[in-house]
Amino acid sequence: MGMDIDTRLLRAFAAVFDEGQLTAAASRLGVAQPTLTKRIRLLEGQLEVRLFERSRAGMAPTPAAHELAARVPALLAGWADALAAARAAAGRPAVLRVGFESGTIHLVGLATVEAFARRMPGWQVRLRQFNGFDSGAALDAGEIDLALWHAPPEEGGEGGATADGRYGCAPLGLDERWVVLPAGHRLAGRGELAMADLLDEAVVSVPAVAGFWRDHWVGADARGGRPVRVGAVVHSPDEWLAAVACGQGIGFAPASLGALAGRPDVVFRPVRGLGPSRAGLYWPAGRPPTPAAEAFVRSCRETVAGGGRVRPPTGAVDQTASNGAG
After folding, report:
1. Degrees, nearest 5: CA angle 322-318-243
2. Which keywords fit this entry according to its UniProt record (predicted)?
3. Neighbour tally for 224: CB within 10 Å
4. Residue 1 forms part of a structural domain
5. Residue 37 and residue 54: Cα distance in Å, rounded?
6. Cys-Cys link to 243, which of 75, 197, 232, 306 (CB 3.0-4.6 A)?
7. Looking at the domain assignment, is residue 185 inside a domain?
8. The domain containing residue 249 runs over which residues?
9. pLDDT class of 324 with cuts at 50, 70, 90
10. pLDDT tens digits, one per residue of 215-261
C-alpha cells in the first residue's frame, strides 16, 4: 500500500503517544486541540488502523500505535538527514538550528561559532529566539535541532536527560538565580537579599503552561511550600522586564543576564537561599543528536562554561549567525 505521509502527522502521533492525552500533547506542539485531533484522525484514516482508544482517562495506544511509535523517531531523523544531504548536494550550506530563550543567547558568542566552524566546515548556525516554554514545542515539531535553556539543575543532570525523560541534555554550567527589582523598590538599596525577604512580594510570572520553567523562575523550590503571589503573567522577555520595571512584581533571572539588561529602572541583586539554574543544550529524547549537534555541544562547552559556572562569552553573535561558509 503506497501513501504520502505528512511529517506533521507523525509528530502529532508521537506527542499524543508520549503524553497520553490530547490537551498536554497540543500544548507541547503549540497547536490547538481540534487541529491535533484532526491530524490523528487523518493519520488513522491513511493507515486504516486505530491508533488510540479514547476515553475520559486519556488516549490509550493500541498495539498498532506501539509498533508505529517504535519506528517514528528513525523516520523523522532520516527525513532530517535527507534534507541536509539535498542541501549539501545543491551547494547550499548545511544548517544547525538552535533555539534559545532570552536569558541564554549571551552565552553563545563569536568564540562558540568559530569553534563550531573548525569542527564542522561548511556548516552554519542559525539561532532563533523563543520564550523558554515555546522552544520545547519547536523541538518536538522538528523546527529546531537543539534548545539552549536555563532549567533547574535536576532537569539537566549528568544523567543526560530531563527528569520526565522527554529531552536529552548536555549541561554547560551553573548560573546563579538573582532577583530583579524596580529601581525604586524598598529593597533595591541592599547589596544582597535573603529569599525570606521576598516571600511576600508579588512575582511576575510566565504562564502556567511553562511547567517546570514557570516554577523555577518564580522560586517555587525555595519558598518552603509557601504559595507564590503572581502580580502579572507575561508572554515574552520584553513584557517580563517591563512588568518588573513598572512595579507589577519582582522577577528572578540568571545572574549573567544582569549586565546585559541595559535598563536603569531595574536592579539585579544576589539572593541567599535561592539555588542556581543550570544552562544546557536539550534535544528530543527520541531523536539522538546529529554529529553537527554534538559538535555544537562540544563548542559550547569549550567557550561557555568555566569552573562549573557559566561565564558570558567575549564575543557577540546575531540572532542568525554564520561561520562564514557558503
Report:
1. 150
2. DNA-binding, Transcription, Transcription regulation
3. 9
4. no
5. 11
6. 232
7. yes
8. 177-275
9. very low
10. 888 999 999 999 999 999 988 778 888 999 999 999 998 887 765 55
